[in-house]
Write a structure and sequence with these properties.
- There is one protein chain.
- Helix 3 runs antiparallel to helix 4 (about 60-65).
- It is elongated and about 65 Å long.
- The protein has one domain (about 5-80).
- By secondary structure, the protein is mainly alpha-helical.
- The chain contains 6 helices and no strands.
- The model is unreliable at about 1-5 (pLDDT under 50).
- The relative contact order is 0.10.
Length: about 110
């Protein structure tokens, strides 16, 4: 490769110190977005965002807002963030527990 090719390719940023949990989570999101990106300009943009975050030039909210469009979030993650709670009456729960206990007794 010549010098021009080296400048046109965006290499993945490696962060050695991931002792901060929030930075580690952000770095994993960055890696996911980087691995899914095919365009070199997008990779450069992602690199700049993770570097800005690491150097405290942007906050975490801005970082995630910038990179979320390049991440692939599946439906199960979207549903979890929607706070869908399944409730059950006490009698339904008791009946379910009795059934589980009955099956457990008869298996042994």
């Amino acid at each position: 490769m010549n010098e021009k090719d080296d400048k046109d390719t965006a290499e993945k940023i490696i962060i050695d110190d991931l002792s901060d949990f929030r930075l580690r989570a952000a770095y994993l999101a960055y890696l996911e977005a980087y691995d899914n990106a095919v365009d070199e300009e997008i990779k450069k943009y992602l690199n700049q965002n993770i570097l800005d975050l690491q150097q405290n030039r942007i906050d975490y909210e801005t970082f995630y807002r910038n990179i979320n469009r390049y991440r692939q979030i599946d439906n199960s993650q979207r549903q979890r963030s929607g706070l869908s709670i399944k409730t059950q009456s006490k009698s339904e729960w008791r009946n379910q527990m009795r059934k589980i206990e009955r099956e457990r007794r008869h298996k042994h």
